[in-house]
User: Fold these one by one.
Assistant:
Number 1:
Amino acid sequence: MFRASRRLPGRLIAAVALGVAGAALSGGGARGGEPAREDRPNFILLIADDVGWDDIGAYGHPAIRTPNIDRLARGGVRFDRAFLTCSTCSPSRCSILTGRYPHATGAPEAHDPLPRLQVTFLERLRRAGYYTASSGKWHLGDDAVRRFDRVKRAIGGLSGCENWVETLRERPKDRPFFLWLAANDAHRPYERLKNYPPYAPADVVVPPFLPDLPEVRKDLALYYGEITRLDDYAGRVLAELEEQGASGNTFVLFLSDNGRPFPRCKVTVYDSGIKTAWIVRFPGRARVGASCAGLVSAVDLAPTILHLAGLKPPATMQGRSFAALLADPAANIRDEVYAEQNWHDFAARKRAVRTTRYKYIRNFYPDLPNTPPADTVRTLTFQAMRRLRDRGALRPEQKDCFVRPRPAEELYDIEADPHELNNLAGDPSHAGTLATLRATLARWQRETGDREPADRRPDEYDRETGERLPRAARGHEETH
């Protein structure tokens, strides 16, 4: 349940309410706003769940088979510095819909629903005559259902993509459309998939912050399989779009809501958690086969969609349109992006600012370790890391999720240290950069109303075993 008194300052609640009033929120699909135009583009978001940005062939992965997503990249723009505002499912998705940072949406923590008073781009699209539908993973709360004309929930335990093509086929053909197609892949738990060739442990690329063990390779190989299944369903949607003759006027974006569900990835503010694949195909508007090195944030997506639809974004949105980057990938729309980490199974509060070269992290709870989500804690990967830790056999770069206390500040030179393993916060030669980014982050916090919560929400699971604590409050579904 949304607890405004603890998470959202009163001034922000008032601002959100004013934004809703100005946007004339339409829950029933009324079309009383701007008239629809036949030349308005369609929009499809293909949203992966827990897929690392570099675990896609188009981003250079040597083993994972993603031919359909790779083909999408060849027909559009691949963004190489795209970032989420949070590497936690529901806050990330609410941020995408509202164009606001998680602490400003009133849904900053895992399982938080989209609050009723928040404005999304969906209301503007519907008033302009757009048909809006969601298919697959939901995780937005009950109130968000009314934002769409139609919602088809994921079939339990499967890919979550099974109704994607059906949703595209069933759209009204006389209206422009927006489709939110969200996968369960590659969320845990994993199993060997029957209809897709398996990956061998030898195919796996183990990142340096994980130990190269048989358990880790097996875990990553199963994760790879889910990405290939996701790619298959993405290809079916693209083929159906071609069959309908609608691909020429449709903006298609592939992205993920979080990083991979492994230690030091998902829920963190490292690039392994918040950096996302971001591929846009938009015939006639997006340059074909291009790559963009400019920074973009998930808060930029909502104003961009409205911009491309010829609609004015509401004042509540904190992002900016990246439409200019589609035609000119060498352009620049922002100098930095921001991200946050809040409660997700375990207490946490971190904030980060990232430029093209540097990342600064402020850790507000330095007494706590950087524990991954509970379902990752229970994996063979994490438990094998625990055993190595207890024997003193973990390498320094693999100890991050066990370190306590943690440094209050972290600074990384991403160009020299892409995995963010060498903290430069205490290096005198980087004192100027540290001071600048510290001030930049503090200014963003002031401007967006990011304030320390009155109380620290306690852990719900054991940090060593991932088992629910006896005293933990019930009522949270474990679908992170």
Note: The radius of gyration is 21 Å.
Number 2:
Amino acid sequence: MDGKVLFATFSAVFMAELADKTQLVGIGMAAKSGKPLTVWLGSVLAYMLVTIISVLIGALLARFISPLFIRYLGAGLFIIIGISMLFNLL
């Protein structure tokens, strides 16, 4: 296992997910249900599934497309979505 890749991935995902809508949903569900452990488990399982799917897609794409192209495509889509949201186009 590559510790640098592990740390970089952990840091990127942690910072990207910190205080986003996923956490707000968790807060709301825990407050409404009064069952924080169950909400935590459901959140962890859902995020694990989403992560597995995204990693598999990334690994598959990397076989056919340059990782650099995937990086630029992702950055471009992120910018387009951000601008669209800024101007209420989405």
Note: Residues 3-65 form one domain.
Number 3:
Amino acid sequence: MPVTRVRPVRALPQPPPRADTVRQVLFQSFYLKCLAHASYVVGDEGTGVAAVVDPQRDVGQYIEYAAEHGLRIQHVFLTHLHADFIAGHLELRNRTGATIYLGRAATAEYAFTPLSTDDVVEFGSVRLKALETPGHTPEGISILVYDLAVSDTTPYGVLTGDTLFIGDVGRPDLRVALGWKAADLGALLYDSLHDKLLPLPDATLVYPAHGAGSLCGKAISQERVSTMGEQRLVNYALQPMSKAKFVELVTTDQPDAPAYFTYDAVMNTKERPTLDEALARELQPLTLEQLLEAQKMGAQVLDTRDPEQFAAAHLAGSINIGLGGEYATWAGTVLRRDTAIVVVAEPGAERESAMRLGRIGFDQVAGVLDGGLASADARPDLIRSTERLSPELAAERLASSAPPVVIDVRTPPEREKNHIAGSLHIPLNRLQERLIEIPAGRPVLVHCAGGYRSSIAASLLQRAGVPNVGEIAGGITAWEAAGLPL
């Protein structure tokens, strides 16, 4: 559909009605908790046309929603080239024929329609209007959503991508590895917020691409929608300040970004296999002997069961990243993306294990262990376990004449709140590069906040050959609940 120009938005005092309750316009958000990722479908029942904004790579839910409401997905927008996940724009293009839209500063191998400020895509009562909002990334855009049956000048809401979050703004340092300076992008972000978003009416609803837990910001709220008026009041980064002060604020104290972020940002510019194509190749059942041969050749053995199951029994040399936690983020942090992965999963969870790796572009799964760990019942020599000590028993051992080394794998801000006296602090994302700091000749006890990250850490230590590794069950939360000193 051709892109045309429209007049700039005028700020009118009356609040727009919610689009999902008005006339024929449909607005639906989708939230992927494990990646703290929000995506959106905007549809027009009159024309039967829909657009998807910032889709995740497994796109079935959008196609199902469209079918349920008699819609055809004809447009797919990326507010920017995402770093923390592989977007589903190619999957939607291939399955529905949708046109892809990116900001005009983007470059990509696939065909797309570039959008500049004030460019619009319109169907029925829906108008989607682009605003160039670089800063988190150089090609970033935000998208104003209008219900034309209500107003063609006052937007219902704005899809802000990673430019503006609820309670935060996008970090400007994720393109440093690609040649951009964080300070330069921070200055662009200031201009985007002040020139493009802050002038919007107070009642404009704000729908970002991420929520709390995302590493694309440092203080993102648990709330998933707000208004421009509320954000002016409560968002620390939108308070009156100079550009220099803003740049200083948004370039300091950002959490470490996993190495896969740069890889994913680049992959989102590529013409690549779709997720279905990747899974068709990856979900090959392996015998135990085939898995061991792959491991001997350097493959990473990924056990996706819960930490409690892994602690009870697991294959020697396997890495535990349970599906019950921030699986994709930690997989992208501790696994090598240039090395094959073989999966050990609870029977029935093999596809989910591979699919969620595919969400971050880890398409190098070489197969899954047929039958899960039960396939190794006849080989007890291959099985290892991890002792999980209650806080009370851990405290007794720490008070003994030969105490273990306690390793705290939480983040620095968590550590600053409280910690076990004498513990060694090595954040999980730094553990593999700091193994040399662990004293030799003493048992090791690992802990995190609740037990998920400590299981990952214990498996990495065992894989690296560290002897006598255990965990404090329940982490610092259980330690504190037991009344033990911090």
Note: The chain has a mean pLDDT of 94.
Number 4:
Amino acid sequence: MEDWIILAIVIPIAVVDLAIRGYAIYDLSKTFDKRSDANKIGWILAIALVNAFGWILYFLFGKIPVEKVKDEESWD
């Protein structure tokens, strides 16, 4: 296979991977009040350093569900 064909396949995959990693870190930063700093640093390292499985694991196991506040009328 020629090099340009390989690059045409790999570059879009890498761009999507970086975009999802960025979103995962952004999502993690929004939950600053719900987790300890050590746990947050661990998830940032997992998202950034573990290949594609870091952000997959974060979205499967690391997200904290939104808690209902007393003032809210519904979950919508």
Note: The longest helix spans residues 3-30.
